[in-house]
Amino acid sequence: MTVTHDRRKNSGGWNAALTLSAALPFIQRHSGATVVVKFGGHAMSTPELTAEFAKDIVLLAQVGVRPVVVHGGGPQIGSMLERLGIETKFKDGLRVSDMETVGVAEMVLSGAINKAIVSAINRAGGRAVGLSGRDAKLITAAPAAEGLGFTGVPVATDTGVVTTLSEAGFIPVISPISADRDGQGYNINADTAAGTLAAALGAARLLLMTDVTGVLSKDKALLSDLSIPDVQGLIEDGTAQGGMIPKLQTAMDAVSGGVEAVVIIDGRRPHGLLVELFTDDGAGSLIHA
Asked: Quick check: is 228 in a domain?
């Protein structure tokens, strides 16, 4: 017996078509623009989240956006250090990286995590290429502060390799591990690296994916639209605390460096990138000049 399916009874196709039609003005707005996405350790906590993220990145590329992924991996580095019996120390929210620690960070970030994200994007139909800050002098590092060892900050960039790959239709996936002018490796905070690269690339958007819904007020309400003075006020009055402070500093630096806007979004919710870029609603906290 042959069973037929009357697809006309399924209204899902009409809903999908309406969604695509509504997204058209936003797709046209961002077509050809560079969008830097920081994919964090908590946002990549499950294979399912990573797979959904990869699909979204491929979709961005398919509609003409030039995505550049910068990833972290703090929880994964911590787990590996624990397995190896290496003590983890923090100072002012940054990991203190001795020679052994920065070696482990490079193994985890530039090795396992970078290749896992590249593979996920390629499986989703994209053409991803893994890089680190070391490659083609993409990021030149220097010590972040006294007492932090080989934890670094960017002091120079050469984005030629990223631009070349993007123009050729590839999706760069970048580990923040970088080196100084003598070749010594440094572990750079992924938010900081993403902000620096976004400014250097003249990105239209920097999207920081994290494990909270966005920037919250004192009564835990989402603050969806913030200027730089607004952000400074949140830091000064203590509303912004802990790990949100360096993210907000990165956002302010990126906007001051020429990025049109920075968005802090919840990386645990699938398709937040698409909601933010292709709908009126947005998906987090937008920070602009």
From this structure: yes
